[in-house]
Write a structure and sequence with these properties.
The structure holds two protein chains of two kinds. Chain A has helices at about 10, 15-45, 50-65, 70-80, 90-115, 120-125, 130-145, 150-160, 175-185, 190-215. Chain A is an all-alpha fold. The N and C termini of chain B lie far apart (about 45 Å). Classes of the chains: A mainly alpha, B alpha/beta.
Chain lengths: ~230, ~270
């Protein structure tokens, strides 16, 4: 049976779509920011010469990178209560899962950025009497993060799209709202296409914002600093 | 009699089975220019890097301004502010302008205000003839200019000694002269300098003492006269003959007339 495409349901349900969009945006921003900060901490552990710190952070990265995000979400929302740790809000549980997962990926992006910096940069800083931490924070990290902006953009866009997995624990984000509208109206194609367009709006904006950041912090005289 | 500002006693350093330094002893007097020459792999750079603990020596002593700094319990950052290093690959901070490259350590280590540090940075840049490049990034400068900024960065810290690790080896030949000129000016101003170099012209013209290293030991040391005109050790002779051949000297025997920038061209072939 062929059903007529009724595009007018989109303006009819616009406020519901926008509620979902708002939740998706919130989830994305929070997990990207927490993942970024966590990623720097874990990434510093991964370049640490202390074997215990290196070991713990390596296990962390391998565990979160090597298992499905969906399983991680379930373990935190459905598994932890079995240990007496109950997170009542599915949104909070989802934010924790996404942030922990993204921190693992972002730590590798950070580590890649740090390893792109020549050891001579640290040696020069140290030979002027700066401490290791001063060299790290004033010389290495500012350059490392600049070099790593393109892969960071990839990860941020992935996070926006992966936030849709939280529909499985009942977070009222964009995909779940779309699914409910679609079930209610039977208009799968208009609804899902519109949901896709809303995701694309988020990801494309992210890509443009990051390009702006790249240009703003480009180092004159380095490859790519002139490109638009 | 004046005390040496820097004294090295029986310094040893190995990387695994590779004994890079096999017992080095030398003295550097205040305001002296000491050049270290020798084939690659002879341990010259490692010696320099041991002096300010970029490599940790395995044995021996380093006495700097009367204090033994070879132990692990010293404040190496305090030592390094007094003994800066200029690197073969410049190692300017790529994300900072020339001015801020110099100002950074002044702010972080010497605890100057930003304004004081930048004022001092500009003065240092003027001394190396780059006052107008204060706001240029390293990527926008030639290799010679980058190395001059690196020298200015070391000078601005007001150190007692500057270590130069093959400062012109990464430069195109036409850029070597400008860096050597800055180094000569610095030497003339009374800075104590230890210079690892392949620029025999510089060694001959500026050095108070030339040290020839080979296979982890000092094979010979003396005045430029001793080493270049009257070398005693056969290994020194072989080395000088080879390096002068490389730079185009026609008579591979005893060099008598080569240009300060090491071109080694003779007037009268």
């Amino acid at each position: 049976m062929v059903m007529e495409l009724r595009w007018e349901i989109i303006p009819q349900y616009l406020d519901v779509f926008l509620q979902g969009l708002e939740t998706t945006l919130l989830i994305s921003v929070v997990s990207i920011v927490l993942g970024f900060l966590g990623g720097i901490l874990i990434g510093m552990g991964r370049i640490s010469r202390n074997p215990i710190i290196y070991g713990i952070t390596t296990v962390y990265v391998e565990a979160f990178r090597g298992t499905p995000l969906l399983i991680q979400i379930f373990l935190i929302y459905l598994g932890l209560p079995q240990l007496g740790i109950v997170i009542r809000s599915p949104l909070v549980a989802g934010l924790i899962a996404l942030s922990l997962n993204s921190a693992a990926y972002q730590s590798e992006i950070f580590r890649g950025g740090v390893q792109s910096i020549s050891v001579g940069q640290i040696e020069a800083a140290r030979s002027l009497g700066m401490t290791y931490n001063q060299a790290l924070f004033s010389v290495v990290i500012p350059q490392a993060i600049r070099n790593a902006l393109p892969p960071y953009t990839n990860e941020f866009i992935t996070m926006i799209k992966d936030s849709s997995l939280l529909l499985t624990i009942g977070v009222m984000e964009l995909t779940l709202q779309g699914k409910l509208i679609s079930a209610h109206t039977g208009q799968s194609i208009p609804v899902l296409l519109f949901v896709a367009v809303l995701y694309f709006t988020l990801t494309f904006s992210t890509s443009r914002i990051m390009r702006f950041v790249e240009r703003k912090f480009a180092i004159p005289g380095m490859i790519g600093s002139e490109s638009k | 009699m004046t005390e040496p500002i820097l004294e090295v006693i029986d310094l040893k350093k190995s990387f695994g089975d590779n004994h890079v330094l096999r017992g080095i002893s030398l003295k550097v007097m205040p305001k002296e220019v000491v050049t270290i020459i020798g084939p690659s792999g002879s341990g010259k750079s490692t010696l320099l890097r041991c002096l300010n603990h970029l490599n940790i020596p395995d044995g021996g002593k380093i006495i700097f301004q009367g204090h033994d700094i070879s132990g692990g319990d010293i404040d190496i950052n305090a030592v390094r502010t007094q003994m800066n290093m200029v690197f073969q690959s410049f190692n300017l901070f790529m994300h900072l302008t020339a001015k801020r490259n110099i100002a950074l350590a002044l702010i972080k280590v010497k605890k100057m205000t930003k304004a004081e540090a930048e004022e001092r940075a500009i003065k240092a840049l003027e001394k190396v003839g780059l006052g107008e490049k204060a706001d240029a990034y390293p990527g926008e400068l030639s290799g010679g200019q980058q190395q001059r900024v690196a020298i200015a960065r070391a000078m601005a810290m007001d150190p007692k000694v500057i270590l130069f690790d093959e400062p012109t080896s990464a430069l195109d030949p036409e850029l070597i002269g400008e860096v050597l000129d800055v180094m000569k000016k610095l030497a003339t101003s009374g800075m104590t300098m230890v210079v690892v170099t392949h620029e025999m012209g510089f060694a001959r013209e500026m050095a108070d003492k030339v040290i020839f290293m080979d296979q982890g030991v000092i094979a010979e040391q003396g005045t430029p006269e001793d080493i270049f005109v009257n070398p005693q050790n056969p290994r020194t002779k072989v080395f000088l003959r080879r390096i002068l051949k490389e730079v185009g000297a026609l008579d591979p025997g005893i060099p008598t007339d080569f240009l300060p920038n090491g071109n080694g061209v003779q007037d009268n072939p």
